[in-house]
Amino acid sequence: MTDPREEDGIPVLSGDALAALQDFYNDRDAQQKRFEQLKAATEDASTTGGQRLSMDMFTEDWNASQFWYNDATATILARQLLSGATSSTHLAVVSAPSVFIQIKNLLLGVVDPPQVSLLEFDDRFAVLKEFVRYDFQQPMKLPREIPSFKLFESAHTLAFLDIQPLSKGHAPVAKKLAIATGAENYNILQNNGRIAHQMVDHVHFHMIPKPSEKEGLGISWPMGPTDMEKLKALFEEVKAKM
């Protein structure tokens, strides 16, 4: 029997389509309920401290977050970030809320945890007290809430002290403009002194593409402990000489 609405040109959903739509609404409502529970818990500091968090409370939005990993991958990255971290360490997780969630879970029960901030564009994560709004389309505009020891900044370059230095004075120099080489992964290397592997006695830079794990530059990275007071003193010393 023909539905009279179809004869009038009004589209009519089938029974299966209506059932699927109802399932969608039920899932949406259930997820919203979990999100509201999380929001209520984060407003109660005594509850938040012992609650295990889950990304299931949020729907993925590629327009808002750049890096959305599954739990297994996020946990691996979280463990790497926490390696060597102390109570004086400040970790900033940029546009990777799933990694931040796993860091929080790994820190449950830790007496003196490192400070962790989530730099994120998606305002839904503002329910978390560590949320700091950050626009990944303007990557060099770091929020003031994140501690940093900026040594130099120009239109194209930013230099700052590393908070987990390989040695005293370790200062990353970040390029504000990408190098037009076509390489998606690469290292910029400049050596000074024989024990630092300088073989030619004039200043020069190496741009080394990293097309695979086996090719390109291999690096060991023995991070030192973070002591913010010593780092601050070194910062003042270096700035005074610039």
Show the helix and strand layout.
Layout: H1 4-7, H2 15-42, H3 45-48, H4 71-82, E1 90-94, H5 97-106, E2 115-120, E3 131-133, E4 150-153, E5 157-160, E6 173-175, E7 186-189, E8 206-209, H6 228-241
Parallel strand pairs: 1-2, 2-3
Antiparallel strand pairs: 4-5, 5-6, 7-8
Helix pairs in contact: 4-5
Structure report:
This protein has helices at about 5, 15-40, 45-50, 70-80, 95-105, 230-240; strands at about 90-95, 115-120, 130-135, 150-155, 155-160, 175, 185-190, 205-210. By secondary structure, it is α/β, with parallel strands linked by helices. The strands form 3 sheets. Strands 1-2-3 form a 3-stranded parallel β-sheet, covered by helices on one side. A 3-stranded antiparallel β-sheet has the order 4-5-6. The chain is elongated. The N and C termini lie far apart (about 85 Å).
List the defining traits of the structure above.
single chain, 242 residues, alpha/beta, three-stranded antiparallel sheet, 8 strands, 30% helix, elongated
Question: Which word captures the global form?
Answer: elongated
The average pLDDT score comes to: 75
Q: What is the strand arrangement across the widest sheet?
A: 1-2-3
Query: What is the gyration radius calculated from CA atoms?
Result: 25 Å
Annotation, overall tally of beta strands = 8
Distance between the termini: 86 Å
